[in-house]
Each structure stands twice: as C-alpha cells, then as structure tokens.
Amino acid sequence: MKKNKVLLIGWDAAEWKVIDDLIAKGLMPTMKKFLEQGVRGRIATLDPPLSPMLWTSIATGKRPQKHGILGFVEPDPKTEGIRPVSSKSRKVKALWNIFSQSDIKSNIIGWWPSNPVEPIKGAMVSNFYQQERKNKKTVDVDKWDMPEGTVHPEKWIGPLKDLRVHPLEITGNLIMPFIPRAAELKKKDDEAFTTIVRYLAHAASIHAASTELMLNEEWDFTAVYHDAIDHFSHAFMKYHPPKLEYIDQERYDMLKDAVTGAYRFHDMMLERLLNIVDDNTTVIICSDHGFHSDHLRPRMLPDVPSGPAIEHSPYGIFAIKGPGIKKNDSIYGSSILDIAPTVLSLFDLPIGKDMDGKALVNIYEESENKKIKYIDSWENVNGESCELSDDVKDDPIAEMAALEQLIDLGYIERPESNSVDYRDKVVRENKYYLAKSYACAGAYPQALEILEEIIIPETPDYRWVVESVNACIKIKDYKKGQSYLNMVKDKNLVSTSYLNVLDSKIELALNNPNKAIELLNKALEDFSDSAEINIELAKVFLSLRRFSNAEKIFNHVLKIDDTNAYAHHGLGLVYLRQNKLEEAIECFLESISLIYHYPYAHFHLGEALVLLGEYKSAESAFEQVVLMRPNIKKTYRWLHDIQDMLGNKQKKQAYKKILDKIIEGNFTVITGLPSKKLEELLQQLFKDEIISKNYSDKIISGYNFDFAGNFSSKNSIIFAPLSYLGSMPVTYDYKIIYIDETVENASQYINSKTNKLKKGFDIETNNILQKQQDDANLWINQQPDLDLYYLSSDKKINNIKKLII
Amino acid sequence: MKNTDTKILMNGKEFKVPPGGTLGVLALGSVGIRAWKRAKQEYMSKLKNKKNEEK
To answer: So what's the ipTM on this one?
Structure first.
C-alpha cells in the first residue's frame, strides 16, 4: 500500500491579487489547475510580519513568544557581536523534530531559519545553502565553497554542492523573461540586474536541491521554502502594472514584467514538483504574508529597522490538494499558525494543545468525520527528536554573508564600529518584536512590560512609545497612556497630525468624544484624504449616533478609494442603526467582497439579515463569525435564537450549551435619559412584580442606590441610569432597553420635577444630559456583545414590557 | 517536457539544452541543472578546441 505523503511549498510574500490576475491572463496554468483540484483561502499573518519569525511559526504552530525566533538577527552568545537568527535559537520542536520522533522521514530545504542543519530522520538543506558571498564580496564560481552545517546527511554534501547555481552563471536569455529589454541596462551598475540574477540563482539552487532529494531520498514529508517572490516584490512591485503615477515612465517600461516573471517561474517550478509526486501526496502551497500590489503600495519606506515590511499585506495565500481534500473549494478564517496542526492532522498525529493554531478541518471532504487527536504538548514527548546539540559549530563567514544580505535588503542597519552598542540595539529591537507579538495575541500587559523595559526615556524610539500608548489604551491604563503620549509630545517623536490621532484615541477611551473629534479634525487639516483618520472620525460620530456626519465622512473615504472595506462596513452600520436594512446589507456585502476575513462585517450582515427575516442567510453569516472570531459571545446568542425561527431543536441545544459555558448570567438593563415614559415604565414594571425595586424615584435623585448590589442575583431585570452603563461588570451578558428621549425633553422633565422651570432654560442641566448621552452612546458602541433596543418614548408601555420579558 | 537521469525528453525526443540555459530547464530542477551544466561544459570545451585549432 502506498503511504500518504505531504509536500509543503513555501512562497514568501505570495499574494492572491497577483496570482488571480496572472491566472486570468493565462500566465499561471499550473496554479490554475491546482486550485481547481483543491481548496484555497487567504491566510492571516502575524504582527510583526517578519519572515524568519513567521516561517518558524508555520513550522511549529506557535507564536514567536513561544518559539523564540525574534527578528532577523540575534546576539551571538560566543562573541560580542550579532549573527543571523539560526536554528539554534528555536526553543520548541518544529514539524521535522516531531516527525523524527514519529518515524516519519522529512526533506527540509531552505527553511528560514534552518542553519545549522538538524540531524533529522531524512535530509535537510539549510538557508545558507544558496549563499554566494564571502566577506561582503561575491565569490567566483570555481571558488564557491559550501559552508559547514548546510547539508544533512553528509552523503548529500557533494551532490548538492554541485547542483547550486551561481548568480554569475545566469545568462542574458534567463533574464529576458523578467526584463525583456535587459540588454539596455547598464548591467553591473543596475540594482535591478543584480537582484534578478541573484534571486533567480537562489531559487534555481533551492529547487534543484528539492527535486534531487524528492527523487532520490525516501520521504514522507517534504518542505521547501523559496524567498524569491519576496525579493522580487520588494525590488519591483512598484513597477508592476497598473503604473503608479509617481513612477518614471521609462523605468516602468523597463521593469514592469519582473514580478510577473517571478510568479511565472514559480508556476513552472510548481509544475515540476507536481510531476514528481504521486496521487497519494497532499500538496500545500502557502505564504507567510501577502504583498501590496495595488493602490496600497507605499510610496516611501520608513527609515527604521525592518522598514520594508510596511510593503507586506496582512493576508498570504493557502492552497491544498490531495486525497480526501475538497475540490475547487474555499476556506475562510485561517492563520499561518494553522499550517503545522493541519500537517499533523494529515499524518493523523495529535496536535499539541500548546500550539496556537488549529487543524483546518474544513479542507477535508468528510470534515464532519475527521477525527483530530490532541496531546498536551509535543515538548514533553520523549524520543529522538534530532534537535541540535549545544556544541554545534558556527560558521562566522557564512553568517557574515547572510548578514550582508539582510543589510542590502534594508531589514537591518549596518553594524556600527562599537559592536557592544550595536548588540544592545539588536536586543532592544528584538524585544520590541516580542512585545508586538504579545500585543498581536492580545497579551497587552506582557507587551507593555517589555516596552517599559526597552524604552530609553532620554532617546525613545517613536515606534516603541506609540506601541506603549496603544497597549495602555487596550488595558485601560489611561494615566500611563497619557504619560507615554506626553513623551511623544515632549520629544517631538511624531508629526503633530499623528500625535493628534494618538491623542484622540486616549480622549475617546476617556469618554471625551467631542475632544476626540476636535483632535481628529486637526489631524485632517494636514491629511484631509487620510482614510485612517477619516474613518476614526466617522466612527466617533457613529457612536454618538450623529449619522449624517458619519455617513458624509464614510462616503468621502469611498470617493477617494472605493475599495476601502472599512468604509463600506462603517457606512453599512450607519444604515443599520437607522433601520435602512437593504442599504446596510449591500454595504456589508461589498465590504466582505473586499476583505472576506472581516468578522464584524459578517456579524453586522447577520444582524441586518435577521431583522429582514432572512434567517438561513443570517445563520451562515454568524457561522462565519464563529470561524473567524470565536470569542464574540453575542454571535452564539444570535445563532441560538435563529434556530428557533428555523425549527432546529438540536442545533439550538448545542448553542445553548456554549452560551451556558461562556456567560455567567444575563441582565436586562432598562436605561435612558430621565423622562416621563421611563418613570411610568418603571412604576408599571414594579407594580407587575417584573422588577423587585421601585426605581422610579431614582431617575433624577442622584442615583444614590446600591447599584452593584443589583448584580448579586442572576437573570434579573434592573434599572441603570445612563451614566452608570460604563460601570457594569464585564462578566455578564446584557440586553439593553434604551428609552430614547431628546436632551431638551429630558431637561424639561427634570425641571418640572425640581420646580426649576420657573427659572427658564437651564443650560447647565442640558450640558450634563448631553454629556451623559454622548458617553453612554460611546460606551454602547464599544461593546461588541451588547443586545441593544433603542425605543422611542412614544412606544406603548405594554409593547416595551413584551420586549423586556 | 519529460526527463530521465541523464536526458531531457520533449515529445519523446532528446531536448538539446542550449549552453545559455532556459527558464524551463532551470524549472526542471536537478535534472535540468545537470543537463545545463553539462551543455555549458561541452560548449566551452568545443570553444577551447576551436581556439586551439585556430592557433
């Protein structure tokens, strides 16, 4: 019986937008066929989107804070200097170690980082294999040694050494598909020329080693990593069609085919790999992140370490085909962390519960029958995992060559003469990446702790301080956030406009929406067309229920860029909140068509569909939310309630079980500005014994009742003044009955109660009520799980009662 | 294009790899690289012989 095999192909920075365009033009025929035979999906990257960290996450299923690869370089424990990140720094088992323990043979080629090679069961070729530089210079073809620690086992050192392609071997006719008019370039001086010969040679070398091992080494799992698409994209995406207006026409004409050429060459290499494998092989193609290829291409790169990463887009590619895998289908909501668990599931091996990803069961034809096994951790499993021992030698020359490549690419700075200072700089930079990784996982306190450690108050790095401000907002430590903001201000770390945006975030978090509006408007004076600032402003207006302001701004953003999914979503919310359901649905669908992995767009689409009575479609929308963001409690409640409408008792029961697990209790909260209607409602509810206390006299009496005590009994109905909403415990689920009343009417009601009416219009009361209403609206808007009913004050009490009960 | 360990076959006939190489040959992987390196070597030695004869 033939064994199941898995081939994992990594294409750094591969982007669906480019691939789909080339497939449509008939330029990637192998990829087209591949997708027809399998499943495809967009795969979410991690932050920071730096390749060595990401490819290690792909190979381990774990975030950087667990696997230990943090950036491009790291301190060298043996010297005072630095070295490229290496396999020695990985703290956890990669797939190939797990497979070695499970008697599964692997071929691993070019993985970043994988130098020095590990003595695994199978063969390994490190990411130093294709490097042709020594002491900053390109060595001649006939003097081209292979660094120690590049190939395992030893028997492959000779044969694989001879299969490498040196950049000096790349001839004119090999360059022509990338630059048809290459002959016109001043070859040696032109960076375009050197980039192409170098990375084409690297790709050819890696591909030669992969095919050689796949043809001649017994294997169950092969993983091959190519970095050429990333390098070609950083060098040439700015020249890729459509032409950007600021790009020189002559240069565009010369270089517009380079990215296309790189993708076409990968399609050709893919064809070869698919010819080698048999029908029992499952093939996965993935990238670690995407690459902006449209109007989002940045014009300038920030002058900071890893600055070029700004060109990366947050979604990479994922495609899979093989026995038992669905055909011509799509999956949604996957992350690069899911690759390792999915590969383990293909071999029917258990997934470590300490892995951060999940097996993508939706890829299987019989996904409901696919049994996924689990163990606590592969780290505790004994047996020969073939990891590196501590005494493995380093090769400083090969490391220097790899460092030079990183300097060339702009990922790291050239080391200063004082290596101790530079090493300290690297340590701090890597800790910043670690902090970002924690923040990406929602672990803001840990992120902040690291940032506090690395920030030098006298000479702070603006990125670290800005990250601290954002972390402080997330953990609601506004005082500390303000102090970091002051540091940004005092040291002039960012432009005034950016400072205003940051400041507005704090003000908004402190429930000062009008101040936030003022700051965002100031920021817009310099950047009137900034989508980010405009959307922030529109969101504040939306939260204050100032719909016409919000609508105007969202439309302004869409006029500049009609592919902005966030603006479509925002506009949809404006319509949804005004009960314009069909317009809202149209906007949410447009938003989803632009970014499918957008849980809140699906969520609000679901809400609009429920309100329209389209329960089946609403169910599908909420099911997508569960896949993408399983921690939004309200999704399960919607799904539970929808089952009633659809008559699915079993499903209803299943969702009930989930709800019981995640929610401590439910409260129905009656709130609103003081009004006659609210008073009458509370009196009636008390009379009918629906509420246990007579709150009606508390409406304007300073609210001096035991508010917290209300939460001692579960599943009850309570009254909360608007100004108390923000203080409600977060562990409960709320249904808010909001009796809507104008500030003017509420003010009149208070005056009538307190005999102030005789004194005429009371501006002070008006201002207090307006602020209460604004604050409450803002709080409501910040709660993803709220079940909210705005009821106008002319609604009959009996109808309101029905809703409450 | 098909291949064996020593030859690249196209439509059943041996494909003569040009000494300058082609992307298609590089995309064949180890088999293509070997054939290309051999073609280059043969070309260079022919060139050398020709030069020697001219001398």
So the answer is: 0.91
